[in-house]
UniProtKB/TrEMBL annotation:
Keyword hit for tRNA processing: no
Source organism, top-level taxon: Bacteria
Pfam families: DUF4345
Alphabetical UniProt keywords: Membrane, Transmembrane, Transmembrane helix
UniProt keyword Transmembrane, yes or no: yes
Coiled coil regions in record: none
Chain segments annotated as transmembrane: 7-26, 46-67, 72-91, 103-125
InterPro entries: DUF4345 (IPR025597)
Source species of the chain: Kribbella sp. HUAS MG21
Protein's UniProt name: DUF4345 domain-containing protein
Length: 129
C-alpha cells in the first residue's frame, strides 16, 4: 500500500506542477489548447493565473509528502488534494456538453479519477505506520 500511496502522490504532484507552471506563466495557451476548457466561463487571465499559482502551492505540499513520506504528511497532502479536486469535479460534471460526447466522457473520467485516486490513497495512508 505504501507504494500505491507514494505513486499517487508523485502523479498528482507532477500534474499540479505542470498545470501550475503552465497556468501561471502562459495561461492563454492553456485556454487555447486544452479541449473542453472553453465550455466554461470566458477566459480571464487573472483567474487562470490565480488557479495556476494555487496549483503550484498544492504541488509543493504533494512534493514534500513524496520526499518526506510519512503518514501525517501523506494524509495532509492527499486531503488537501481531495478538498481541491472534489468541488472541481462537481463543477465539471455539471457542465458537460451533450454535443461533445467523446470529450464529455474524457473530462468526466479525468475529473472523477482526480477524486477517486487520492481518496483511495488517503485510505491507504491511514493504514501506514
Amino acid at each position: 500500500m505504501r507504494g500505491y500511496v507514494r505513486a499517487v502522490l508523485v502523479i498528482f504532484a507532477a500534474l499540479q506542477l505542470v498545470l501550475g507552471v503552465w497556468l501561471t506563466f502562459v495561461p492563454k495557451s492553456f485556454y487555447d489548447h486544452v479541449p473542453t476548457v472553453d465550455w466554461d466561463p470566458p477566459y480571464a487571465e487573472h483567474a487562470f493565473r490565480d488557479f495556476g499559482a494555487a496549483s503550484l502551492g498544492l504541488s509543493v505540499v504533494l512534493i514534500a509528502a513524496v520526499i518526506r513520506f510519512d503518514r501525517f504528511l501523506a494524509m495532509l497532502a492527499l486531503l488537501a488534494y481531495v478538498v481541491f479536486s472534489l468541488p472541481h469535479a462537481v463543477f465539471h460534471l455539471g457542465h458537460l456538453h451533450g454535443d461533445e460526447v467523446g470529450w464529455s466522457i474524457v473530462l468526466a473520467t479525468f475529473v472523477s479519477l482526480m477524486v477517486l485516486l487520492p481518496l483511495t490513497a488517503l485510505a491507504g495512508a491511514r493504514r501506514m505506520t
